Amino acid sequence: MRYMTILLLSILASASALAAPPEKKSAEATVTLHSTITGNQEQPKVLYIVPWQPPGSADRLMQPAQPVLDDVFAPIDRAEFNRELKFRENAATAP
Q: pTM value?
């Protein structure tokens, strides 16, 4: 049944193509192409940054960076470091 439907549709398509009158071809055939590219009009043209908290005290800006560096360069225990590496490896492979 499916093949009969496909065959019938193909016969009708070819018959309509043969029945169409031939088009006259002129020497001055012109082709006009139109295209319009439109971007998203909702994009902001200006960026406003509004703070959601009041500024902190100026004392916090004047803190030295030394306490942060002390934590980075502090000595660690070898066993603790190996345990952390195994934990991160297991966490990376777990789904």
A: 0.27
